[in-house]
Amino acid sequence: MSRKKIAVLVSGGGTNLQALIDAQGRGEIVNGEITAVISSAPEVYALERAAKAGIPGYVLDRKSYPSSQAMTVALVEKLRELSIDVVVMAGFMTIVTKELFEVYENAIINIHPALIPSFAGPGCFGLHVHEKALACGVKVSGATVHFVTEECDAGPIILQKAVDVLPDDTPETLQRRIMEQCEWKLLPQAVSLFCQDRLKVEGRTVKILDV
Ligand code: GRF
Of 20, 126, 134, 190, which one has the greatest count of Cβ atoms within 10 A? Predict the structure, then answer.
């Protein structure tokens, strides 16, 4: 089994990227290595995290492309040039088009800060997700790691983890608890499983194979 090259796509602070870097440092990304961090905007803190970890960072500034499609084509070209095997979206806030899904079918992984299919789909990003969860009065929320398909937040689910919603939660406190207890753990786990060829997609279901 060849060692997988991982590209992490970011747009902001990069705490999920940091969780992946830390997991890699502990030897928890089995059979894989983060070889590129690609940002959709210049000067984001995630690029600093990459530089500190000695990982090459690249900027494909969304603003310098006329359309999402033009940016996606440039992204695919970059990923191919770098021989990337798996694409991880970690707080990547830019819309991508079918050109990416065609080349990386069942090889694009995203983290969403809710239990999909709840609080997911167009418009559900950032703090909005947690505002909606609190407005609905749910008693649990959490995070989902899933494969990315053309339909927003609807690809096969790899891992999910729940946390309790507390009576005095604000969108900010809920967001933080979900990041700490769910996102930062699930994303490295899912990436490691992928790199070991242990994720088998059957329709909408992902089977996790034993070692
Ligand atoms: C996370 O909540 C992630 O679930 C969502 O965007 C946020 C990114 O945070 N997709 P960070 O850039 O990883 O800190």
Answer: 20
Please give the angle made by the CA atoms of 101, 115 and 132, to the nearest 5 degrees. 105
Looking at the annotation, which residues are catalytic?
A: 112
Compute, in angstroms, the gap from residue 146 CA to the centroid of ligand 1.
14
Total number of residues shown for the chain: 211
What does the pLDDT look like over 94-124, one tens digit per residue? 999 999 999 999 999 999 999 999 999 998 9
Q: Which residue has the tokens 């970690």?
A: 90
Distance, CA of 150 to CA of 129 (rounded, Å):
20
Which CATH number does 4-208 carry? 3.40.50.170
Domain ranges (residues) in the chain = 4-208
**Whether pTM exceeds 0.90:** yes
Write the pLDDT tens digit of every residue in 126-147. 999 999 999 999 999 999 999 9
Residue with tokens 């440039």: 74
Residue type at 117 in one-letter notation: P
Pocket test for ligand 1, best of 34, 179, 180, 191 (most atoms within 8 A of CB): 179
The answer to whether 74 and 64 are in contact (CB under 8 A) is no
Residue 204 contacts residue 156 (beta carbons within 8 Å): yes
Q: List residues near ligand 1 (CB under 6 A).
A: 12-16, 90-91, 111-113, 179, 183
